[in-house]
Amino acid sequence: MEGFVVTLSRTIISFILLILITSIIGKHINSHKNHYSFALSVTIGSSIANMGFDTNLKFFEMLFSFIALIVLFYLSMVISSKSRHLRKWLSGRPTVFIENGKILDHNMKKTNFSIDDLNQLLREKDIFDITEIEYAILEVSGDLSILKKEAFQNPSKSDLHISSSPSMLPIELIMEGEVIKKNINNTYTEDWIVDQCSNRHVQVSDVYYGVINSKGNLFIDLYSDRIANPTDIE
Q: pLDDT tens digit string along 18-68?
């Protein structure tokens, strides 16, 4: 019984510690997808698991080791934010695979990438013809950034001389049959929401999801989709 209590206590403390740490540095780790942040995230997970479940290890010694790791990471994060040289050392540098439409095979050899690997990454970007590419750069995250040749780039609205009004962030008003109170304002009042539902011959409780889209229009999805033959039924 004592061992059960000890394990449970260690697990609870480790879980709380994990929540606290990820809330502090989690965004930084996720936004900086490189070998350094990957190694750190694995180490954090391993340390938390050992603190929580491995009763053969002394908890407080593991805790101090874990805190030291986080402090070192935080210090390196602060210093690297002020030093570009250190950022390059910690995060690495992107590698150019294609420049001016030409494949740089010597750069691919340095990173042990084959032409098959490159073609696979291009296909994942919906590009099946390598001759469309002007630049291709392997980022430190492992993702491939590409710039198509001008002839293969999609035209923008400015290219077509089409004017457009600025978009707005979507505003969620109804979720699972309930009005989201915090998103109500002078424009989208609760009475306005009820009126909009009435105009569509439904009640708020019938709405699974209601949102003002980026164009300022109200989109409503009902619990009952009224689709006679849905494509997939779980």
A: 888 878 777 766 666 666 677 777 888 888 888 877 777 888 888 888 888
**Alpha-carbon gap, residue 197 to 210, rounded angstroms:** 10
What residues are paired with 210 via a beta bridge? Answer: 174, 220
Question: DSSP letter string over 59-96?
Answer: HHHHHHHHHHHHHHHHHHHHHHTT-HHHHHHHH---EE
Side chain identity at residue 94, one-letter code: P
The kind and range of the H/E element at 52 are helix 35-53
Ramachandran category for residue 177: left, alpha or beta (phi over 0 → left; psi -120 to 50 → alpha):
left
Closest residue by Cα to residue 201 from 226, 184, 183: 226
163-171's contacts with Cβ under 8 Å and 24+ in sequence apart are 167/214, 167/215, 168/212, 168/214, 168/215, 168/216, 169/214, 170/211, 170/212, 170/213, 170/214, 171/211, 171/212
In this prediction, residue 233 carries a pLDDT of: 47
Tokens of 97: 């695979």
pLDDT of residue 94: 86
